[in-house]
């Protein structure tokens, strides 16, 4: 039994016993309260002292998971692990002193099946950016609007690879904007001017109105359009995505403006009523994905057409996304899980399980979309 489960069981048992002897609480509500409290306690900082009290853990200094990996890599199993645990002076705690964050990459990645699990997260993330931005005719005069830029790594990377004149980015999260500004400040991107803002993709027209300096002062007012709108692993969050597509079309240069997305849609129809529908709404609501965005391929394509896009290409790449990321999360958890709080570990473990389920159930498509705004150029 895992430590967390054990803490959960202890708290639930204690509260249930209390229920039996308590004249005040009736059994069902207090059992539910016990369950809730058990979950909260097991997932918060209260867990550690309780685990210690119950003798469920020791404050072993090298619980960074590396011991387990070393043992299993050598194929020595439990004996090796026991030996590793025996003599600890400094242990491996100094891993903390060696830690270096080399980026804040944040998309699901495009994983090379032959290279997982050795593939680095940032390489998988870059591969997804490459997939989205290839064949888009990005030139030294392009001005890209990057919507949902995460922490800016993709903007620096796009600048290095494609060297557009300008990248304007928006994110809804101020803390990510802060990290991105820092990255942009310390990373030279010769030839590309990167400007990042906090703004909501669902309110694109308001953002444009309130930010008059988006276009070079020399640009004629008739030409105040972006050459590209890009949104990587983010558009399913927008409220609504259909409205975002319409707004994106309006800011793209007619006939030549290009849209490129990495996005998620349904591969199987959503439940239409009852308990299934409630679960569907709850799950996507919890992930801050408006359920109305979860559309099947035909409806999704129609949204693009309705927004005015042509030359629409949609490629499904989920087979190279979900399982690769799930494997990576499991590796990171076994190597470094001991260094993060239980809440973080729990969140990522749940995510990995969800991704494996998605990989098996084929319930969602992860798509790369490319399209052009406006009618075909007259020949
Ligand atoms: C999974 S992350 C992907 C980030 C980034 N594109 C990358 O690939 O590293 C989704 C991003 O979308 C951003 N986001 C979600 N809803 C948004 C909205 N309405 N407007 C702008 N950004 C949004 C989040 O803040 C988050 O950074």
Topology (elements, then pairings):
Layout: H1 3-21, H2 27-43, H3 47-53, H4 66-73, H5 77-86, H6 95-98, H7 121-133, E1 143-147, H8 153-162, E2 166-171, H9 174-186, E3 193-198, H10 204-210, E4 228-232, H11 241-250, E5 258-266, H12 274-286, H13 297-307, E6 309-316, H14 322-336, H15 342-361, E7 364-373
Bound molecules: S-adenosylmethionine.
Structure description:
Residues 145-255 form the Methyltransferase type domain. It catalyses: N-methylethanolamine phosphate + S-adenosyl-L-methionine = N,N-dimethylethanolamine phosphate + S-adenosyl-L-homocysteine + H(+); N,N-dimethylethanolamine phosphate + S-adenosyl-L-methionine = phosphocholine + S-adenosyl-L-homocysteine + H(+). Its EC number is 2.1.1.103. It contains 15 helices and seven strands. It has helices spanning 3-21, 27-43, 47-53, 66-73, 77-86, 95-98, 121-133, 153-162, 174-186, 204-210, 241-250, 274-286, 297-307, 322-336, 342-361; strands spanning 143-147, 166-171, 193-198, 228-232, 258-266, 309-316, 364-373. The protein has a seven-stranded mixed β-sheet with strand order 3-2-1-4-5-7-6, with helices on both faces. Helix 1 (3-21) runs antiparallel to helix 2 (27-43), helix 11 (241-250) packs parallel to helix 13 and helix 14 packs antiparallel against helix 15. Residues 105-107, 148-150, 154, 170-173, 176, 200-202, 232-234, 237-238 line the site of S-adenosylmethionine (SAM).
């Amino acid at each position: 039994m895992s430590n967390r489960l054990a803490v959960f069981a202890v708290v639930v048992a204690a509260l249930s016993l209390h229920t039996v002897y308590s004249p005040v609480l009736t059994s069902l509500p207090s059992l539910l309260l016990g369950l809730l409290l058990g979950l909260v306690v097991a997932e918060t900082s209260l867990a550690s002292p309780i685990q210690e009290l119950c003798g469920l853990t020791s404050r072993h200094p090298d619980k960074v998971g590396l011991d387990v990996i070393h043992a299993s890599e050598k194929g020595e199993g439990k004996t090796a692990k026991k030996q590793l645990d025996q003599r600890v002076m400094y242990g491996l705690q100094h891993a903390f002193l060696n830690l270096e964050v080399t980026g804040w990459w944040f998309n699901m990645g495009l994983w090379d099946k032959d290279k997982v699990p050795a593939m680095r997260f940032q390489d998988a993330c870059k591969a997804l950016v490459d997939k989205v931005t290839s064949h888009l005719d990005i030139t030294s005069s392009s001005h890209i609007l990057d919507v949902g830029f995460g922490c800016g790594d993709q903007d620096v990377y796009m600048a290095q690879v494609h060297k557009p004149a300008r990248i304007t980015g928006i994110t809804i999260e101020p803390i990510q904007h802060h990290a991105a500004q820092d990255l942009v400040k310390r990373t030279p991107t010769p030839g590309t001017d990167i400007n990042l803002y906090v703004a909501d993709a669902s309110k694109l027209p308001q953002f444009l109105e309130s930010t008059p300096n988006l276009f070079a002062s020399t640009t004629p007012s008739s030409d105040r359009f972006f050459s590209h709108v890009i949104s990587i692993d983010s558009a399913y969050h927008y409220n609504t995505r259909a409205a975002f597509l319409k707004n994106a079309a309006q800011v793209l240069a007619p006939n030549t403006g290009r849209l490129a997305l990495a996005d998620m849609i349904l591969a199987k129809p959503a439940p239409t009523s009852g308990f299934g529908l409630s679960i569907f709404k709850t799950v996507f609501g919890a992930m801050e994905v408006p359920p109305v965005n979860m559309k099947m391929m035909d409806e999704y394509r129609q949204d693009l057409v309705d927004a005015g896009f042509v030359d629409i290409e949609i490629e499904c790449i989920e087979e190279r996304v979900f399982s690769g990321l799930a494997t990576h999360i499991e590796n990171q958890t076994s190597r470094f899980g001991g260094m993060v709080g239980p809440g973080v570990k729990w969140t990522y473990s749940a995510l990995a399980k969800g991704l494996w389920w998605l990989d098996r159930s084929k319930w969602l498509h992860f798509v790369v979309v490319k399209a052009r705004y406006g009618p075909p150029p007259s020949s």
